[in-house]
C-alpha cells in the first residue's frame, strides 16, 4: 500500500478519536454517568493527538531542511488560526459555542486569543512547531530531537494549558518530520508481527505507567504515542483490514483540518438541540449514556464533511492565499538580513590586524 493512503487512514482514526473525546467532554457535564465508558474514551488521550502530530510531521518531512518552506507553512497555520478564531467568535456569539471561550471583557478575550483552548490550539501549536523547526533547520537532527524532548519537561515548570499541549506533543511532530525514512522502513516489515508488538507494548506500558502514575512523564508519553501510531498503521496494513472502513477513514483523514476547525461547532449545536428538546434524553439509560457521545461525534463528523464540501470552493477558508505566505516570509527574511547586517556593523574586532590597527577608530 502507498504510504500516503495509509497515513490518510491513520489520520482519519486520529481525528475521529479527537472528535469523540470532545463530544464526550461536552456531554459528560450533564448526561454521562457511565464512568467506565468515560475512562475508555480517556485512554485514547495518549494516542489521538500524538498520532495526529506524527502524521503532520511525516506529511511535510520532505521540507525538513528548507527554512523558507517551513516558515511558509508556519505562516499558513497562523493564518488558519486567526481566521477561524474570528469565525468561532462570530459563531459563538450568534449561533452556538465554537472552538473558543467568548468573554465579555477585553482582558478575557485577549487571554483567550493568546492562550487558545479547545481544537484551535492545534493550528496555533503547529504554527509554533513549524517556526521552531525553521529556526533549528540547520542543526543536526539528533540535536534537534534531543532539544525538543528536553523542552517536553517545560510543562512541569510552567503550568499553563497551552504550554502543556504544545511542548508535551512537539516531540511527535519532530519525530515524523526528521525520521520519515526510518519510520517507513520499520513499518514496511511484517505487518502482523509489528502490529502485535506495538499493540501489546502500548497496552503493557500504559497499564504500568498508569499504575505508577508516570503516563505523562515525557519519555513515557513519547513512547506511548509512537507505539499507538505503529499499532494503528500496521492495523491498516494487515491483509484482513475491512476495505470499507479503510476508505471511510481515508476520507476523514484527507479532510482532517476542516473537521478539526469545524467539529466543535457541530458538537455544541447538537448539545443545544438536546437541551431544547429534553424528551430526547428523558429515557436515558446506561446504553444511551454510551451512545449519545458517539452519536454526537458521528453527527459532528458528518456535518463537518458536508460543510467542507459546501465550502471547499473557498480555498482561503482552509489555506492561506499564496501572496500572504510569500509576503510574510519575504518580510521575515528582510528583517533577518537587516538584523544580521546591523550585527556585523556593530561587531568590534578583538585583535589588532594590519587592516584594523586600531579597533576604536
UniProtKB/TrEMBL annotation:
Keyword line: Membrane, Transmembrane, Transmembrane helix
Domain Acyltransferase per the UniProt entry, residue ranges: 9-306
Bilayer-crossing regions: 12-31, 37-58, 78-100, 120-136, 143-158, 164-180, 192-214, 220-239, 251-271, 291-311
Keyword hit for DNA damage: no
Zinc found in the keyword field: no
InterPro entries noted in UniProt: Acyl_transf_3_dom
Pfam family, one: Acyl_transf_3
Top-level taxon in the UniProt lineage: Bacteria
Annotated protein name in UniProt: Acyltransferase 3 domain-containing protein
Originating organism: Acetobacter musti
